[in-house]
Amino acid sequence: MAPFYQFGFFGEWTSLLFAFAIGIGFGFFLERAGFGSSTKLAAQFYGRDLAVFKVMFTAIVTAMLGLFWLAWMGVLDLSRVNVLPTYFVPQLVGGLIFGVGFVTGGYCPGTCAVAAVTGKMDGWIHLVGMMAGILLFGELYPALEGFYNSSSMGVVSLDSLLGIPYGTAVFLIAVLAVGGFYFAEKIEKRFTSVRSGS
Amino acid sequence: MNPYLAGIGLGLMLLTAYVVMGRGLGASGAFTSVVAAGVNTVAPSHAQSSKFYKEYLPVNASPFKDWLVFEVAGVIVGGLISGLFAGRVKRTVDRGPRSSVSMRLTFAFAGGVIMGFGSKLARGCTSGQALTGGAVLSVGSWTFMLAVFAGAYAVAYFLRRQWV
User: How far apart are alpha carbons A31 and B86 in whole angstroms?
Assistant: First the structure.
């Protein structure tokens, strides 16, 4: 019965070993996706290469469907899976700020680590800047704490918010993702044809 | 690699984390542990009196004996392995055709600061919120993810000289 750690199949040091092993796979596929390159990541926001969207949503749909099927087969106890609580406004504002940082710096926290280790100096600088930003948040935390903890909604999922069954929400997101991939391919084609035509 | 294949690979890693651990992946959290440990070394009383840093400083244990820290150590090793096999490990500054090295590095630092701040306000980043929370349909994570795209597209025009 999964999640294995929650059912006490192994201890903390083994869990850290799993963290390292899973991380290796995570970093491997990030680099394979081309995400060790800021120009590749930033191209998402200029319509030239929508790999960020494609990779992210494929990953989300893969994990989402896996969780759904494993739970449906009775292998995985979803109630023991940790879901982060929602703080609506700080997460909305944090996301907007993060997005501005993404297109300014060219990386996200995981990809700048991959960029740095593969020799990108801009990746190293981004990494240092990111830690400075975390430090800034930490130093301003007393002033930000009220906002940080505002609009707390607890653990809430899209299906419960919309009042639809879990399976229906999973199905709708998968369909939306496939539709998104179709349009992503079209947008990329339009950009390439415009450029080759000019 | 084909982006859909890479996405499936990442998705399977995330699924493995959920099945094995009951939790997802992350990145910014590990760097917060590093920052908290740094503050705790330089100014221990300041760190210990802060609610924010204390979250990342376990009592009687190293702040680095942490699931996300080990996971991100793996990300670094995995990225290096992939880069080495593909012959992509090279000392360089990745920049757009119209961008100078100094411009690129200045923006990389500024973007890093903005992003680090935003990730803390949102309680996670593209890994810990968008992917991890997205797969379990968390409302906050989907809000974060859509806001990231909205924020980036909103200012992309003004930063075009750096990239295209």
Answer: 9
Element (H, E) at A100: helix A88-105
Q: How far apart are CA A58 and CA A150, in angstroms?
A: 32
Q: Are B25 and A26 within 8 A, CB to CB? A: yes
Q: Is the pLDDT of residue B121 over 90?
A: yes
Contacts of A15 in chain B (CB under 8 A): 21, 67
- pLDDT bracket for residue A198 (50, 70, 90): very low
Q: Which of A4, A38, A49 is nearest to A116 (CA)?
A: A38
Does the pTM exceed 0.90?
yes
What sign for the dihedral angle of Cα B62, B66, B68, B72? Answer: positive
pLDDT, one tens digit per residue, over A158-184 is: 999 999 999 999 999 999 999 999 999
Alpha-carbon span A177 to A61, nearest angstrom = 8
Question: Are A91 and B145 contacting, i.e. CB atoms less than 8 angstroms apart?
Answer: no
Q: CA of B68, closest CA in chain A: separation in Å?
A: 7
